[in-house]
C-alpha cells in the first residue's frame, strides 16, 4: 500500500513537526528585533496581525497605516513574553467614509456615541468610524454601503456587517441550514473565547441585516433593479429560479407548438408533482403585523393575504372526499385538528416532477393536515405560472383528489382550468393502492409519461428538511423568506447540474429503449396476430379516452371466507333440494363442521394470546375472565367433537393419543381439533376439498387484514412523528401502536395456520399452482410497502411479496384467464417499449428546451441594458454591467450544454436499425477540462446566485 494513498498515515509521522510549528507561531519567531523596520525613533516592533500572511512585527504607526483598508483584522501585541489581543481602534485607527482612500474630510462626524460595531467573518469588532460631513455628503447608510458595509438601520447607524460576512452566512444558511443564532454565536466565540472580553450584543441587528440581504439578493437576481418598472412592478413568482427544461411558453417552446399534431404535442406537456411536508412546521409565535414577509409572493411561497382570504372563505366549506381506496395519510389527516401550539402544521407544494425543482408561487402553509382547500389553491397558483395547455399531475392520492377536482373549483368560484389534465400516482406510492388504481393511475401505462417516477418531490423534501429545526422557531415572515431562499438555492443547484444529469439519463435510456423495443417485437411475433390486433385497438382506445375499459386491469371477484361460506351454503341447499345430500347430522352439514372447526381454531388462538398476556401480577378478576372463556370454549369444542366423529370416523382415537402424549393439551386453547388437514388419512376427498376452499380464502383474508393493519401502523407512526409532542402524547401513541402490533401478529398467525393447512391438503388433492400466489410468511416479510428489509439500501429495496399477492378464483388453465393474462402482459410489454422510447424523445426535447431557455434568458438580460438610471451614469454603468454579466453567464451555460450534448443525436440514432455502426462511448463525454473551467467560471460569475 502506497502512503500517498493514505495521507493520514503519512501525516501521523509528522505530527510532532506540525505541533512544533504551531507552538513556534505563538512566539515572535525570527522577528525578535525591538525596533520596527521603519526606523523611526521609539518605534517598537510589538504588533502583529493574525489575519495577514505577513508574520513580522511592526510598530503602532506602521500597523495602523497598513490596516486602513482592513479595519477588521485582528491585531496582537507582544508584552510580558506573550501575545495578547488589542483593537485597531484603541491603536488610533479611524475609518473615514465618504471619501477616497487616503483622503481626509474637512468635517468628519463620528458615529453616534463612537461605539460603532462592525461584524465580519473575522469576528465582531469595535471600529472607529467617521462619516463625511461635507455639504454634499451622502446619507450615512449610503456611505456605509459604498464601503461594502451593510448598515443595521438607515438612521444614525451604529452597527453594520461586511458584504463578505453576509455572503458567507447566506451560503451556509442555504447549503448547511446554519441558523443565524449559531452563526452569530460562532462569531462571538471567535472574537473572544474566554468570556473576559464579551463583544457587544448585536444579534438582533444581525437578524435584521440578514433578512434584508436575502430580500435584496432576490430582487437583484430577479432583475428588479434593471427593470424600468422597478420594485413596484414585481409580479408573483417573477423572482423564482425557473426550470429551464420544463415547457415554458414564450421562453423555450418552438413556434407553433400549440398546433403540433398528437404524435408530438405530448412533448410539450408539463409534469407536476404535489405533496405535503409536515416537517416544515412553525410554532405559534409572532404575527404578520410584527414579522411581515418581504418577498410577498415574488418567489416560491404564495402571497399570504390572498391565501388567507381563500382559507377564511372556504375553510369550513364541506368537501366530499371519500376514501374509496386504501388507508392513505393524505385523506385521513385531512380533517385532523391543528395543534394549538402550531401556527402551521407543514407545507403543501407543487413541484416540477421530472427535474425536481420548486415552481414559482406553488407552496403554501397547512393548518389542519393535508386538505384539498389548501392543495387546490396552491395547484391553481402554480398553473397560473406560465403553464402549457397539457399538464400531468402526480399526487400520492390522485385517485381520490382528482374525483371532485373541477367541482371544487366551481365551489370556490374559480374559472375552470384551461389545461388538459392527466392524473397519476408516483411509482413507489402506487404500490400501496388497490388494483384498479394500479391500472388507472400508473405512470408505466399512461401515454407520454416516459420513465418519470414523479418521486422527486420526496427527494426535494429530504434536502429542505434540514432547515425544519430553524424555521419552526421563526416568525411568519422570516420563515417564508427563508424557505424561499432555500428553494432558490436548491433550484439553482439543479439548473447548474442539468448538463450532466440529462446526459447521464439519456446514456441509460437509449440502451434500455433498444432492449425493450426488441423484447416487445419478439413477444408480439410469438402471439396470434388476430389477438394482438384486437388488443392494440383496445389499448389505443383507452389511451385516447381513459373512460374506456382499461386493458391493464383484470377484474377478479375477491375471494373471502364469507363468500366461500355463502357458496357452500348454497351448494348444501341445492343438494338437499335434489336429494343427493349425505346427511349425518340433522343440524350440521359437512361444510358446517369444517367452518365451525376453523372458527374454533381462531378462538383458540385469541384465547392463548390473552392468557399468555396475563403475567405474574394479573388480578383475580382478570384470571377469572380467562377461566370463564376457557370453560365456554371447552364446552363448544366438546359439542363440535361429537358431530365431527360422524364425518371423520377414527378421529377420536387419534385425539386420545395426542391428549395422552401432551399434558397441556387438556387446556381449551391447546386441544387438538384435528380438522381434515391435520388428519388427511381419516377424511374423504369432499371433506378435504371443503377445507381447501375455506383455507385458501382464509389465507387471502389474513393477508388483506395484515396489509390493512400495516397501513394503519405506518399511518400511526407518521402521525406520531408529525404531531405527537410530549410524554403524554407519545405514551398514548405507543399504546395504540402496540395494540395494532398485536393485531398484526394475529393476522400473521392466522395466515401461517392457513398456509400450513393448505400445504398439508395440497398433497392428497394434487394442488400444484397455489404456491405461485401464496408463500411462507417470514418475519422479514411483515413490513410496510415503503419499508426496506434489514440491511437493504434504498437503491436495492424490494417490496415484500405480501403486497403483490392477489387471489384468482379461476384455475390457471381456464381459457378466459389465459387470454386476459396474455393481453395484460402484451400491453405491459408494449408500454415498457413505448415509455423508454418516449423517455429518449423527452430527454432530447428537454435538452433543446434547456439551451433555448438559456438563450432566451441571455436575450432577456441584454434587453435590460440602458433601461434604468438614465440621468445617473455611475448607477447606469453598474446596472448595465450586472445585466451584461448575467447575459454572458447564460450564454456560456448554453454553450456548455451544447458542448456536453454534442454527440447525443448520433447516439440516439444508433441502435434503431440493425447495422454495425460503432457506437461512441458516452463516458468520454464527461465535461472536459476546458468545459469544466468554463462551467466553473460561470458558477463563479454567478456566485451570488441561489
Automatic annotation (TrEMBL):
Pfam families, alphabetized: CxC2, KDZ
Disordered: annotated segments: 918-946
Superkingdom assignment: Eukaryota
UniProt feature coiled coil, ranges: none
CxC2-like cysteine cluster KDZ transposase-associated domain mapped to chain residues: 88-195
InterPro entries: CxC2_KDZ-assoc, KDZ
Compositional bias annotation for Low complexity: 926-940
PANTHER family: CXC1-LIKE CYSTEINE CLUSTER ASSOCIATED WITH KDZ TRANSPOSASES DOMAIN-CONTAINING PROTEIN (PTHR33096:SF1), CXC2 DOMAIN-CONTAINING PROTEIN (PTHR33096)
Protein name: CxC2-like cysteine cluster KDZ transposase-associated domain-containing protein
Organism: Polyporus arcularius HHB13444
